[in-house]
Design brief:
The protein is an alpha+beta fold. The protein folds into two domains: 43 residues, no CATH class; 47 residues, no CATH class. Helices cover 24% and strands 24% of the residues. The strands form two sheets. A three-stranded antiparallel β-sheet has the order 3-4-5. A two-stranded antiparallel sheet has the order 1-2. A hairpin with a 5-residue loop joins strand 1 and strand 2.
Length: 110
Amino acid sequence: MDGECDRILQLADHNLVRVQAVQDGPANLCAIAEAATRTALGILTQKAVPRRTAPLPATSLASLDACSLVGQQALAQLPAAATSTPNHGFGGWDCVWESKDTHRDLGRSR
């Protein structure tokens, strides 16, 4: 996909971490994805991922399901997405609407 560059890290337990840089417009997305991947790899190889010391604010998007963030009126602008069932990603962190002709992603990070 144009405007996107991905990197994959395989963890010791065989889980995968996908690092994705996405932007419309000019940017060196692979350099961005590579820098993020190096940072993540450094943290993951040094020790366990540090846990939050404070709870997330009540207004944080982290507790919401990504699929719930797009209303029917917005989906109606993309007819193929409006008629498809969303695929909920891991932890509700992303949501994908697909048809044979279209692919629409909504993602967020925690």
